[in-house]
Design brief:
alpha/beta; Undecaprenyl pyrophosphate synthetase; 6-stranded parallel β-sheet; 8 helices; disordered N terminus
Length: 237
């Protein structure tokens, strides 16, 4: 308990952590397994990282779970991913609720299969009064699309009034969540892939060669420790 408390103090500067969970397919291929086995393993890692982030005192954790571009994948894989999401949200619902975790979703949720929409709504309702870690799943999410949707909503609500950045933020998918302090991407790729385009303009970036299914608490701690050494000036001196 003392160790966890100490690490919460160490991580005091990290309020919002965002992760691009990449490399499930490559992990499976390296092991001679079907891609779906990589996705299954990746889901098991999520549970551990959520617990680790909570232990570290991080207040917001956003996980890039399915992008607007992922629809281009084979239909069978997309269908499997949605069923895997549904099954694991149901499986972990009570545990997340018991741990006071507030689960949110970012993206065009109304375009997802109805069975997944239903599960998402149930999860939101179950955890909406929780006051602990806010866990945000970005599903059917695209950063550019989020900005377009926000601008359209702002225009619809305000007519001919000038649209400024505060108004755009008001209509983001989860507007009350602060910008991420750090964005992590696994698998060695070094790009943002349309993730949190508006919110990440001043985020620190960390790219690791670890494939997501191999990512663990020690990797997370090492990256967070590295973040503590960085100086953030936000355009100032």
């Amino acid at each position: 308990m003392a160790r966890i408390f100490l690490h919460k103090l160490i991580m005091r500067n990290i309020k919002h952590l965002a992760i691009i969970m990449d490399g499930n397919g490559r992990w499976a291929k390296k092991k001679g397994l079907p891609r779906i086995e990589g996705h299954k393993r990746g889901v098991s890692v999520i549970k551990k990282i959520v617990q680790s982030a909570d232990d570290m005192g991080i207040k917001y954790l956003t996980l890039y779970s399915f992008s607007t571009e992922n629809w281009k994948r084979p239909k069978s894989e997309v269908k499997f991913l949605f069923k895997l999401m549904e099954e694991n949200l149901k499986k972990e619902a009570e545990n997340l609720h018991k741990n006071n975790i507030h689960v949110l979703f970012a993206g065009r949720i109304d375009e997802l299969p109805l069975f997944l929409q239903k599960t998402i709504l149930e999860m939101k309702n179950l955890t909406r009064k929780n006051t602990g870690l806010r866990l945000i799943f970005a599903i059917n999410y695209g950063g550019r699309q989020e900005i377009v949707d926000a601008v359209n909503k702002a225009f619809e609500m305000n007519g001919n009034k000038k649209i400024d950045k505060d108004m755009v933020r008001k209509f983001l998918y989860v507007p009350d969540v602060p910008d991420p302090d750090i964005v992590i991407r696994t698998s060695g790729e070094q790009r943002m892939s349309n993730f949190l385009t508006w919110q990440s303009v001043y985020s620190e970036l960390y790219f690791t060669s670890k494939l997501w299914p191999d990512f663990d608490r020690n990797d997370l701690k090492r990256i967070c420790d590295d973040y503590q050494k960085r100086k953030r000036r936000f355009g100032g001196l």
